[in-house]
Amino acid sequence: MSETENVTAAVEPYVINSYGVSNELLSEGAALVRESGLRHVAFIMDGNGRWATARGLPRESGHKEGMVSFEQVAEYCADIGIRYVTVYAFSTENWKRPKHEVNAILMILRRYLKRAMKLIDQKRVHFVVIGDISPFDEKTQQLIRDLDEKSACYDRVLNIALNYGGRAELVHAMNEAVREKAEQGVSSAESMLLGMGELLTEDDIERHLYTYPCPPPDMIVRTAGDKRLSNFLLWQSSYSELIFSPVLWPDYRQGDVNDNIRDFLSRQRRYGGVESTVGVK
Which of 16, 186, 200, 250 is 20 to 30 Å from 117 at the Cα level? Predict the structure, then answer.
């Protein structure tokens, strides 16, 4: 069994439900996940600022409320049997926002990471921050590393994309793959001159993606109505089903997850072939 196949093996279901979701909704969600075979769901959590503006509040208030949605949705996905969840929390482009807003977002995220450290055994999920963490202060970087290490014993995975960009990830992965080849004694020049064929394969690149060894997302949900990926999981999303929800992220809740899974079930997934399949087989 390959490493990727190994990490996608079935795990025992468990329910935390610290937010008091009804048993009916949980049962419905679990049934939908079983029917769809969903393993990995990713979220582009959009609409925090618009949510706040519509209520006459500062944009920072939208980000605070968005964190509430994030925590509830991430836990719910684990509760209904989705093993991998990835959320787009802060992109490489988000640094362009007003400084006070950037500072507010990062403060909210740091507080979450500290809280997550205390709740590892309660949440029973492997917290992984994906992206380039080098711009953060050393204390935050150490917190991220400690959280990853201390929660690695759990099978469920929550990838939190911080200072993440899909293009930057690909540059990182390719550079690491080339460096790996160089350490093996193969340079790009040698490969071309000696006719050794491809220097890099898809597997070489995938091994160095931030999300490795998670499988690619089956479904990517973007809230707030915009219909684009915005530099998110560009490699991994090749065959993901894209769901565009009109709901602003701070209003997005567990029932919306179920609605989006129903949408996923209605899709025909061909993977470049002719015969279609519904959901994940």
Answer: 250
Q: How far apart are CA 21 and CA 79, in angstroms?
A: 10
**Over the stretch 58-87, which tens digit does the pLDDT of each residue have?**
999 999 999 999 999 999 999 999 999 999
Q: Are 1 and 45 a contacting pair, CB within 8 Å?
A: no
Is 46 catalytic? The answer is yes
Q: Where are the alpha helices (DSSP H) in 80-187?
A: 99-118, 120-123, 138-151, 166-183
Q: Note if 94 is an active site residue.
A: yes
Helix or strand (DSSP H, E) at 160: strand 157-164
Catalytic residue selected from 6, 23, 79, 94: 94
Question: Which residue matches tokens 């004694």?
Answer: 185
Residues 173-209 have pLDDT tens digits of 999 998 888 888 766 555 544 455 567 889 999 999 9
Instruction: Report which residue type is found at 187.
Output: S
Q: Can you tell me which residue has the tokens 């279609």?
A: 276
Copy the structure tokens of residue 230: 């915005």
Report pLDDT digits (tens) over 126-164. 999 999 999 999 999 999 999 999 999 999 999 999 999
pLDDT, tens digit (0-9, with 9 covering 90-100), for 8-25: 444 445 789 899 999 999
